[in-house]
Amino acid sequence: MPEISRFYGIVIKMYFDDHSPPHVHAQYAGHEALISINTLAVISGRLPARALGMVAEWASLHHEELLSLWEKAKNLEPLHKVDPLP
Questions:
Q1: 3-class SS letters over the chain
Q2: Average pLDDT, whole number, for the chain?
Q3: Cβ-based neighbours of 29, under 8 Å, separated by 6 or more
Q4: Per-residue pLDDT tens for 56-68?
Q5: What percentage of the chain exceeds 70 in pLDDT?
Q6: pLDDT score of 27
Q7: Can you tell me the distance from the alpha carbon of 41 to that of 35, in angstroms, rounded to the nearest whole number?
Q8: What are the extents of the domains in the chain?
Q9: Distance, CA of 53 to CA of 81 (rounded, Å)
């Protein structure tokens, strides 16, 4: 599973050929959550509130780029890194 971004101790990954809906895997301090790219809702898992807020902010800033990466991952194409939160 390629790591597509890392910031403030949060690691964001995306699986190749993963199940719908489009989402990212966010990991922080032993926690993991699947976050919907379209709604920013937690699909499963959990993150501490502060980390979840940062993931939501990051995902909203990169919404179109994440959807493009999702399509690449579905087609087993190479993924690029996404800029972290400043």
A1: CCEEEEECCEEEECCCCCCCCCEEEEEECCEEEEEECCCCCEEEECCCHHHHHHHHHHHHHCHHHHHHHHHHHHCCCCCCCCCCCC
A2: 96
A3: 9, 48, 51
A4: 999 999 999 999 9
A5: 100
A6: 98
A7: 6
A8: 3-74
A9: 20
Provide the phi-psi class of 51: left if phi over 0, else alpha when psi is between -120 and 50, else beta: alpha
Alpha carbon of 62 to those of 29, 30, 31, 43: distances in Å? 23, 24, 22, 19
- Tokens of residue 56, six digits: 């939501």
37 touches 50 (CB < 8 A): no
pLDDT digits (tens, 9 = 90+) for 6-17: 999 999 999 998
For the record, the structure tokens of 15 come out as: 């699986």
